[in-house]
Every structure is written in structure tokens, then in C-alpha cells.
Write a structure and sequence with these properties.
Blueprint (H helix, E strand, L loop, with lengths): L1 H6 L5 H7 L8 H22 L5 H26 L8 H13 L4 H14 L14 E2 H6 L2 H10 L2 H5 L1 H17 L5 H21 L1 H25 L16 H7 L3 E3 L2 H6 L6 H6 L8 H7 L8 E3 L2 H8 L3 E3 L4 E3 L5
Parallel strand pairs: 1-4, 2-3
Antiparallel strand pairs: 4-5
Helix pairs in contact: 3-4, 4-5, 4-12, 10-11, 10-12, 11-12
Length: 333
């Protein structure tokens, strides 16, 4: 099948991007359905963490809430791209509230994530809204302090504890301290989160605080942080200087197609089809599988997965080796 596809005339560049436009139209009813149904299930699972039944059931509800929060985050991400319900003020208002609840306020998310899309795979400026990437040569030249800071930002534990490092600090505390007038909603998100946690602890006890707040947000943040990392930090990824950069190349060569189970694809809102999302961010997440099936040009994507082996391979990557044109670990530096 691959030989047959390669023999056909495959679209590239602007022609390929334009070909995706027919899929960049949402279905209003379906978009509202995914928002409302996921929100209902999320609230129901949170209520389950406080239910008067056995602890294993409460823990199960807590874990489920974490995965549903992840799905809501991807839906929020889609709405911020105007991929779903682009003209709905109600949807925009609802998602603005979710941005605060999900520790990704719209002011910082829009600014940083749009920058990420416009500078994906560039060796300069790509650190905003993404994990930093340094060349091997620059890494060896910089001070020990800068090396330590760089490695800390890419460390597996930093990703695992993304609840604190990426979201509470990176998406709330730091933006507000840096530009308080512009990112006042970051302060609201941080303060509200702490207030809810304190209220749960004082009125319902430590178990309620743990299962209703900490565990769901920890799970969602950890998985979300890793997905975002691995979709642009995988063995076959490519990075470019400004002279060799194009939007299409950045999408197809610097963004992965992460193969997952159907269940995980549902919980992660098809974010694994990341190369297609970067090619056209206006395509609703629920149409991404359709695009892959109908456009042969997108079926040769660079892939990774959530298999432990692939996770280890991705986490070992540290710097970009210009000579070999690949990401390498420190043992190769």
C-alpha cells in the first residue's frame, strides 16, 4: 500500500494545507455534546470521590476524574484555537471559566500556545509555550547554572509533577509575577485553586482534598505535560534554523503521530494526531481521524506511542545534535 501511495502525486506545501480546509468546520451539535457530556461525567466523577461508599470506589472516581479533566483540557485547547464553536460567546465564556479551573488561564494559554504553533521546531524562540531545546554545542558552552536549569525543565520528574511545575507555577504564578496587568486571571486561577483545596481540607477532611482535587489535577497535569513533551521531543523529530523552516515541515517533521488505544484517544481528545493539528489547528479534534484516513500525505507521519519503551526513549533525549541532525542524550554529548 505504501508503494502505491508513493507512486501517486502527493500534495505538499500550501496545496496540502489548503486541502485540509474542508475538514476545518465543526458540527455545532456535536461540539456542544462533547463539551456538555464530558463536563457532566467529570462533575459526576468528582461527586463520586465524596460518595458514601467503599474507598476503592472513591479512588476509582478520582482517577476517572483526572482522565476526564485531561479530555476537557483538550476540548478547551480546541475551542481556544476556534476549531469548535468559534462564534459562540457562550462557549467562549464557558471555556474561559474552565481555563481558570484547569490552571491554564486564557491570557497566558493563548499567548504562549499561539507562539508555539508559529515557532514549532525553530531552534530559536521555540521555548515559549513549549519545552526548551538547546543544541549540543550551545549546551556545552553555557554555564553550569544554565545547564542545570535547562535539564531541570526537561527532567522526567518535572514532567511527572507538571501539576506544580508546568501548571501551578508555569501557567499561573510566573506569568502573573512577570506581567500582572496582562495575566490577572492567572492570579485568580492560583488563588481559587488554593481556596478550594483549603475548603475541602477544613470542611471535609484530608481525604476529600486528596481525592477530589489533588489526585485528578495531578493525573491530568502529568499526562498532559508528557503528551506535550513527547509530541515534539521524540527520536525522529527535526529542528531547523530560520532559513530551513516552513510551516508544513514543522507540522509534519517536528510533530508526532502518537499511536494510542481507542480509549486513550478518547480521553486525550485525539491529541495524538498532533502532526495534523499543527498543519491546521482549526480542524476539530473529533475530525482528526477522518483527516488521517482520507489524506494519504499524512499517513507517513513520524510516530511514537505510550509504550514504556517509547516513553523512555523520548525522556532520554536532551539536546539537538546539529551534525547528526537528531536529538541525542547526554551520553552522546
Amino acid at each position: 500500500m505504501q508503494a502505491t501511495l508513493k507512486e501517486t502525486s502527493l500534495r505538499t506545501g500550501k496545496e496540502l494545507i489548503l486541502a485540509t480546509k474542508e475538514y476545518a468546520i465543526d458540527h455545532t451539535v456535536k461540539s456542544w455534546w462533547v463539551i456538555l457530556s464530558t463536563t457532566f461525567l467529570f462533575l459526576l466523577s468528582l461527586a463520586g470521590t465524596l460518595g458514601h461508599f467503599h474507598l476503592p470506589g472513591q479512588i476509582g472516581c478520582s482517577v476517572l476524574a483526572g482522565f476526564l479533566l485531561l479530555r476537557l483540557f483538550v476540548i478547551y485547547h480546541d475551542q481556544q484555537h476556534r476549531a469548535i464553536l468559534p462564534k459562540s460567546r457562550l462557549a467562549a465564556g464557558f471555556m474561559k471559566i474552565f481555563g481558570i479551573i484547569g490552571l491554564s488561564p486564557t491570557s497566558i494559554w493563548t499567548a504562549s500556545h499561539n507562539h508555539h504553533h508559529n515557532h514549532n521546531s525553530k531552534l530559536r524562540g521555540s521555548h515559549i509555550g513549549s519545552f526548551p531545546v538547546m543544541t549540543k554545542a550551545n549546551f556545552l558552552k553555557c554555564s553550569k547554572g544554565d545547564r542545570a536549569k535547562y535539564l531541570f525543565m526537561r527532567h522526567p520528574l518535572t514532567i511527572l509533577f507538571g501539576y506544580f511545575s508546568v501548571f501551578l507555577y508555569g501557567m499561573c504564578v510566573y506569568p502573573f509575577l512577570d506581567k500582572p496587568r496582562e495575566h490577572w486571571d492567572c492570579l485568580i486561577a492560583f488563588t481559587l485553586h488554593l481556596a478550594v483545596g483549603l475548603a475541602l481540607f477544613l470542611f471535609l477532611g484530608w481525604q476529600a482534598c486528596l481525592l477530589t482535587l489533588l489526585v485528578p489535577w495531578f493525573i491530568s497535569s502529568a499526562i498532559g505535560s508528557y503528551l506535550f513533551y513527547a509530541q515534539h521531543n521524540f527520536p525522529e523529530v527535526s529542528f531547523y534554523d530560520k532559513a530551513g523552516w516552513t510551516y508544513e515541515k514543522a507540522a509534519l517533521e517536528s510533530s508526532s503521530y502518537m499511536r494510542t488505544s481507542r480509549l486513550m484517544a478518547w480521553f486525550s481528545g485525539n491529541i495524538g494526531y498532533h502532526h495534523i493539528h499543527h498543519l491546521n489547528a482549526r480542524i476539530p479534534f473529533y475530525r482528526l481521524p477522518e483527516v488521517l484516513a482520507k489524506m494519504p500525505e499524512l499517513q507517513f507521519a513520524k510516530t511514537t506511542s505510550l509504550h514504556p519503551r517509547d516513553i523512555v526513549h523520548c525522556l532520554r533525549l536532551k539536546v539537538w545534535d546539529v551534525e547528526s541532525q537528531r536529538m541525542v542524550g547526554l551520553d552522546a554529548s
